[in-house]
Specification:
Elements: H1 3-8, E1 10-16, H2 23-33, H3 58-63, E2 70-76, E3 86-92, H4 100-106, E4 112-118, H5 125-137, E5 141-146, H6 155-166, E6 169-177, E7 185-189, E8 195-201, E9 213-216, H7 218-225, H8 227-241, H9 248-252, E10 256-261, H10 270-280, H11 291-299
Parallel strand pairs: 1-3, 1-4, 4-5, 5-10, 6-10
Antiparallel strand pairs: 2-3, 6-7, 7-8, 8-9
Amino acid sequence: MSTVSEAARRRTFAVIAHPDAGKSTLTEALALHAHVIAEAGAVHGKGNRKATVSDWMEMEKDRGISIASSALQFEYAPEGHDGEPYVINLVDTPGHADFSEDTYRVLSAVDAAVMLIDAAKGLEPQTLKLFRVCKARGLPIVTVINKWDRVGREPLELVDEIVTEIDLQPTPLYWPVGEAGDFRGLAHVNADGEADQYIHFTRTAGGSTIAPEEYFTPSDAAAKEGDAWDTAVEEAELLAADGAVHSQELFEQCVTSPLIFASAMLNFGVHQILDTLCAIAPAPERRASDPQAIEAAATGGGQAI
């Protein structure tokens, strides 16, 4: 296999977020869906659930936070994919401000970022700082609203906050069916902004194994979920009418951000994140960077981190 074809099947990305948004849990869930591990751990390893693979240092286990970046490499082939599997280079970065320098270094070496947002808290200070660094680097960003299995904010409210606060237009690819705290599944949103498929999830014990999925047509989804499906369809259509549909060019220019709702703890929406990264995240390429611009972005124009 040539160097060019080898590079084309690689996807290198960092997971960025404020502390406790679920970065390490998502990293674990992604590894589970790629069949790298047989059972997903949790950051605190409570009950019978083991600790995460990426937070391996004793200090990380004790404090329940990532204090150093960790990289996982594995192969992954989306369902129906022909040819060689993709090579995923996944970097779990520290969210805590005390360890930001490690994250800034990582963002100079990846080709895309997954911006993880807590469904209840929305955009938080460290997320904003890391977004500015990604913007200065020209890194395409996939946005994931996490913890949709818990009580949180309205989805359209979260979208509006992202547009208003960081001038990044989310473009839904997978929209939630069921409000925050009542996560039933995802509506797949096509290029025309239409919900054309329903993916229903079933919880597993402790969320430590891959959640079974069932697929339904829109008419069957309406019969199964009633108002919850109708609301998801209406919200997706409302955003599409406002121009919030995926454009590969605008995504790569960091103008828009494909949006996915998920629950990393329950493994809901996780393989949809992997499939999306394989399909649209850029392969490795030469990138120009301005270290001074990146530093200015990280510090908010000279303010202390």
